[in-house]
Hints:
The complex is a heterodimer of chains A (about 375) and B (about 500).
Chain A: H1 13-24, H2 28-40, H3 44-68, H4 74-82, H5 84-116, H6 123-138, H7 142-152, H8 156-166, H9 183-197, H10 203-206, H11 214-242, H12 245-248, H13 254-260, H14 270-300, H15 307-323, H16 327-358
Helix pairs in contact in A: 1-7, 1-11, 1-14, 2-3, 2-9, 2-11, 3-9, 3-11, 3-16, 4-5, 5-6, 5-14, 5-15, 5-16, 6-14, 6-15, 8-11, 9-16, 13-14, 14-15
Chain B: H1 16-26, E1 32-39, E2 42-49, H2 55-68, H3 74-77, E3 83-86, H4 89-97, E4 100-105, E5 111-115, H5 144-152, E6 160-167, E7 173-180, H6 186-197, H7 207-214, E8 226-228, H8 231-238, E9 243-247, E10 253-256, H9 267-271, H10 274-303, H11 311-322, H12 328-348, H13 351-371, H14 377-390, H15 396-434, E11 436-437, E12 440-441
Antiparallel strand pairs in B: 1-2, 2-4, 3-5, 4-5, 6-7, 7-9, 8-10, 9-10, 11-12
Amino acid sequence: MGGKMKREASISTWQLFFFLLQTQVGVGILTLPYEVHQAAGKDGWLSILLAGLFIQIGILVIWLLACRFPKKTLADFSPILVGRVLSIIIITVYMLFFFMVASQVLAVFLYITAEWAFPRTPSIVFAVIITALTIYLIQEDVRVIARFHVLMSFLLLGVLMVFLLMWNYLNVYYLLPIGSSGFKVILSGSQQALFALNGIEVLLWLFPFTQAENKKKWQAAAGASLTVTIIYTLLALCAFAYFSAEKLTHVPEPVLYMIKSIRLGIVERLDLIFLSLWAVFSITTFMSYLYIAAMSAAKVVNAKHHKKSVYVLGAFIVPLAVYTGNEEAIKTIGGILGTATTVFLFVIPLFLLLVAIVRRKREGTG
Amino acid sequence: MPFWRENKGGVFGKSASENAAAITVMADSSDIKQRTFSYGKVQGILIYIDTLVEAVKVENHILQPLKENGSKKPEEALTVIEYEEAADYNDALKGLLRGKTLLFIEGNPGCLLCRTERNALRTITEPMNEKVVRGPHDGFVEDLSTNIFLVRRRVESKGLMVEYLEKGNRATKLLAIMYEKDIANPELVQRMKKRLEAIDAENLYNAGHVEELIEDSTLSPFPQLLNTERPDRVAANLMEGRIAVFINGGPTCLIAPVSFFSFYQSPDDYTSRSLAGSFYRVIRLFSFFFAILLPAFYVSVVSFHSEIVPRDLILQLKGSVEQVPYPALMEALFMELTIELIREAGIRLPTPIGQTIGIVGGLVIGDAVVSAGLVSNFTIIIVALTAISSYVVPSIEMNTAIRLLRFPFMVAASLFGFFGIVFALMLLLIHLCKLTSLGMPYFSPLAPLRVKDLKDAFVRRTWWKLTKRPYDSKPQTMKRENEGRQWVEK
Lengths: 366, 490
């Protein structure tokens, strides 16, 4: 109906910033402090910072790679670098990775919702609703999705409110002495945090759609990751300064318990409202990943539009997420995906970058 | 037997009587009059529809001058303000139907269309549904040229363009597109023309008919064209680079492209001072969320999350809710529907009775329903607040949209509590992000976010800070005024 704009849909740097931000901020808000605490004790927040640093390195690699082909997505430039067959394999594994991450996000969402708020609602109900919502959005082009992600980012103010409200409840002595756990432990904790923080691989797809200088794109990506790292670190700090180390081992969703204790007078049980905010962040993450997965799938089968692959992936993801929406499966898949993140964030982009450098492939300076 | 015979087309010959006969053959209604008169040495024939023309005009400006100046050419003798040569039968018939008088002179090939139409107009009054406290109080009427006059007199700009369009295959209706050609984006003007030109209907009934034929998404609950009966609103929108469409026979003007926030702007915001204007703007936008979310929030709190209510209030809330045997959704739905009934009845009834209905509906039912134990008194508060907030928006169509939207929200809330509201709200926002008005993003300046334009969306900043036009209509020139108040000593 509407007058179709013939121009290719493109997004601005700010939209890229918030797109990445929304992809990165996700289900981890609730559980990350617990996870890093399990791995690195009270220095878990240092693990998050360290993971943030790793992500920044990943961004640099991806950015250097993408800069060589400023008008192409990974799916378009990888055939130039490694040939058609290998490129299809790469895109396919990326597609599977994104799909699995999306499924994992949904599974965690379903698990926590069932645990915390809706014990008697069958998880398939939420899975179907969320997937339907997602399909409704991601069948559009990247511009609309970016608009939505920007809009949803206003809710981050709600997360910031938490820090302000928590101020009086914190006990800094729980954090001291800083760094006593040792570097090795902190490093192993950052492995946990990496999965929660990741989402930056999406840049390999969004890079050509962003209308800006290459440097600006790097700033947007680095800025988004930095913001996410800071938010997560602050949340972890709050949780660690609120609960003693011993208590923390018993609360898998420390952030919610912590917020539950806030007394405002107007509203009791702020955690229920925070849970709704968290639902939004989880769903936007899910949307981003499923969108990129659908884009990759469309490239693999050489389809013109990603609309059909959205429907197909949507149909597959519901049973998968419902099936894996329990504690054990989440842990197992989380472990696998955690390792896979390293591969998809560093190894493959670095490999492609080296190939590009060795074979001197470069298109335009952008 | 059709009123108008099938028109074969054709060109006028030299003989006046033959020409006149050709027209009368096609139109044989009893109010079509033919009058023969002598003009110099030859004969002249007038054809007109006497229910459409002003008899005085025909007498004074056609018959009399032609009789007195038999030697002059008819074009020189006529004293009507406007005449034109009809190209063919079709043209002549169209003119006849618009209240023009056809003039045939023996020996003169062709037919002159003289402007003699009669106008029976309602007086220019303030539109009932768009009242303002301060500012101009005139409103559109049912006549196209009067409406254009009202706007043109307000915008004395050489760039103000009016383009006429005739639509309707059986009953022709005159449409007019109006835009400021130095501001409005030509691509959008083209787009609007293309959509209007694509209309292929037997008859255009009203603005609503045209709106549905040209809007971007007909299934959306949100109006994508601003309907207004206020010339000042049209003028302001024209100066922002938007395009206005008038339809003859109705007082409603359609404006596009508009954003969601256009519906929350009232001329009052701009006549009052900035601080007050901003306050009302914020109140109005707040009312949007209030109207769609409040009942849903109530339903979800009562049926899922009563622990969210502060301790001091919970006893009263629970106490009043527990006495009602029905689930919260039923209560709320029942009361909301009652309010809708009262509203609908109030509109149809004559004004004095309408008020009685309001009192009976609002007070009597409200009180009795609580004491009968059908509905809790908290529900009454919620429903009343919702009803009031849904009528705050200064646009009837947006008001309807809001009133419709609160029902799905209530259902979602009763199913999944806060999560239901979150899902419904996300769906609504996704829809708003996807929606376009004349191809331009509807939820601008929020999505895509344009911080600069928020100053005329959420608040109304002082005029001297509104130096740039909003970007959602993609105007050719952004600058609206130089930053004023240069005289302030720093």
